[in-house]
Design a protein that fits this description.
The chain is an alpha/beta fold. The chain has helices at 20-28, 47-52, 61-67, 79-82, 101-110, 131-148, 178-189, 201-210, 222-231, 252-256, 306-327, 329-335, 337-340, 353-363, 370-375; strands at 2-5, 32-36, 56-58, 70-72, 90-93, 113-116, 170-174, 193-198, 216-219, 234-237, 263-266, 287-290, 293-296, 343-346, 349-350. The strands form two sheets. It has an eight-stranded mixed beta sheet with strand order 3-2-1-4-5-6-14-15, with helices on both faces. The protein starts with a strand and ends with a helix.
Length: 376
């Protein structure tokens, strides 16, 4: 199979779909990999390294999309990339379709087979291709929040760890999954006063054991969210409904009631955001202020630490990518129900129900089960 790796084109996105080490794995299995020139150069993966791994270097994305049978990316394709996709071609990347009607419509029109990293599952009910970036984003959320709490950046001037004689800052993490756990680890490491809200009592028990009682665990209700957010210096939105639009956890009035100079970090922004006042931002302009509350809503947070993120992502995506290339996409997915769960669009049909639930009325979409689409 011919595997194509275009250079990412989103604002300040330096990650790359395949590392040279991953390319070498594909080549060792008899596949041909073509990489757009300078695709990984910004994070230390030069064209020469890709050539040494067995790849060919191409000068433009148009050549990559024209020649490749499978496109491997990191971020969702931009409109001009969607228009280069075609029937019989496989796209393997993050998609986050539920809050993105434009991308969804273009992928449906392309006729391509589109597999979303974020909806591939594992035997434990986890999301193995989302987890590495969730770990990165969770840790970055507190790093970013601490930075924008500084007065010069619009924050209240609070040091999360405090100092002897001065109480530490209060961090509220809404959601106790991978993002929330990693956010809590970072906040606790800085010496902050940390509270995690979640709706799963078994998960709250696990978190209590993980943190040995050093983090407050509270059952999530409207009242709890309202109470703890109004007292927090930093609130991290870490909720996830796989493949679906994120629920809105704080409304405008609740955000207005927060302390002036406090910071909201919306890690769910890829799925539409979990705060009423959230709107996607970029690494170039990461924050804005509403009602004296600093909002950090960067839609590709892990791109800020692109080298670490790329290597972590490749560790997770490589086995599934090899299966798609070795067996062919249809056979690979039909033999692996977890990879099958990653299929979101196939030859004009939407095969992930949460996307249809979110956009069906707007785009006149109907849901087609993945197995039916592949066998049809």
């Amino acid at each position: 199979m011919i595997i194509g790796v275009p250079k990412e084109i989103k604002n300040h996105e330096y990650r790359v779909g395949l590392t040279p080490a991953a390319v070498k794995e594909f080549v060792s299995h008899g596949h041909h990999v073509i990489v757009e020139t300078l695709a990984g150069d910004a994070i230390g993966f030069s064209d020469e390294m890709y050539i040494a791994a067995g790849a060919s270097i191409e000068s433009t994305p148009e050549i990559i999309f024209e020649k490749a049978e499978m496109i491997v990316k990191v971020k969702e394709p931009q409109p001009n990339e969607c228009k280069m996709l075609r029937k019989g071609q496989t796209l393997y990347t993050y998609l986050h379709l539920a809050p993105d009607p434009v991308q969804t419509q273009l992928l449906v029109e392309s006729g391509a087979t589109c597999i979303a990293y974020e909806t591939v599952t594992d035997s434990r009910g986890g999301l193995p291709l989302l987890a590495p970036m969730s770990e990165v984003a969770g840790r970055m959320s507190v790093q970013a929040g601490a930075h924008f709490l500084e007065k010069a950046h619009g924050g209240s001037g609070t040091l999360l760890g405090g100092v002897p004689g001065v109480a530490p800052g209060k961090v509220l993490v809404i959601g106790g999954g991978v993002v929330g756990t990693n956010a809590a680890k970072m906040a606790l490491g800085l010496g902050a006063d940390v509270t995690i809200l979640d709706r799963s009592l078994p998960r709250l028990r696990e978190l209590d054991d993980i943190f040995a009682g050093q983090v407050k665990t509270v059952y999530s209700t409207v009242d709890a969210i309202e109470h703890y957010s109004s007292n927090a210096d930093l609130v991290v939105g870490a909720v996830l409904i796989p493949g679906a639009a994120a629920p809105k956890l704080l409304n405008g009035e609740q955000i207005k009631a927060m302390k002036p100079g406090s910071v909201l970090v919306d890690v769910a922004i890829d799925q539409g955001g979990c705060f009423a006042t959230s709107k996607a931002t970029t690494h170039q302009e990461p924050v804005y202020i509403v009602d004296d509350v600093v909002h950090y809503c960067v839609a590709n947070m892990p791109g800020g630490v692109a080298r670490t993120s790329t290597m972590a992502l490749n560790n997770a995506t490589l086995p599934f990518g090899l299966a798609l290339a070795n067996k062919g996409p249809a056979k690979a997915m039909l033999e692996d129900p977890h990879l099958l769960n990653g299929l979101n669009v196939h030859e004009g049909k939407v095969t992930y129900k949460a996307v249809v639930d979110a956009l069906g009325d707007e785009l006149d979409l109907t849901y087609t089960p993945a197995t039916e689409a592949l066998n049809g």
